[in-house]
Amino acid sequence: MDSAGLPDLAGKLQHLFKTIPQDAGRGWYTNEVVVRELAERGVAVTIQHLSNLRNGRRDNPSARLLGGIAEVFGVPVGYFFDRDEERRVNQELETLSQLRRTGGLRLRGSDLSPEGVVQLLAAIQEVNRIEGQRREGD
Questions:
Q1: How many CA atoms lie less than 13 Å away from 93 in the CB half-sphere?
Q2: pTM: predicted TM-score of the whole model, two decimal places
Q3: C-alpha distances in Å from residue 5, one per residue of 60, 61, 91, 93, 128
């Protein structure tokens, strides 16, 4: 590993692959799918290089590659650099994961990003809170 690489890049990539499914119920991302999506965005990378980033054998992707990966997964590129951004994204991903497990919110065919779903959930929770207060006041 290069000493100038990104700390825990492999762990962050693995987390994205394990928690963010592809759109339209197409299953989980694979190296092959991500490489293809990156190519569609004009970012060239081999399956082997992406695999090396995921398993920690490499930790120094170009800014263009890192930006492309962030775009594919719908997360801000700051996820890879900024601890606060990483925490925020991980909280959103955990919320989405809980929703998937419980079946609490079905948005198939929706164009909402993970962040949009979290915002929608927050709005629903706020409405529930307000309505709960109204019921208590009656």
A1: 20
A2: 0.71
A3: 5, 8, 25, 25, 45
Identity of residue 131: E
Spelled out in words, what is the top-level CATH class assigned to the domain 9-137? mainly alpha
Q: Give domain limits for the chain.
A: 9-137
Of residues 121, 123, 73, the one with CA closest to residue 96: 121
CA 113, 49, 30, 10 torsion-angle sign = negative
Per-residue pLDDT reduced to its tens digit, 86-102: 998 888 888 777 776 66
Torsions phi, psi of 21, nearest 5?
A: -80, 160
Q: What are phi and psi of 108, to 5 degrees?
A: -60, 140
* CA–CA dist 67, 102 (Å, integer): 32
> 131: exposed, middle or buried (C-beta count within 10 Å: 0-12, 13-18, 19+)?
exposed
CB half-sphere exposure, 112, CA atoms < 13 A: 14
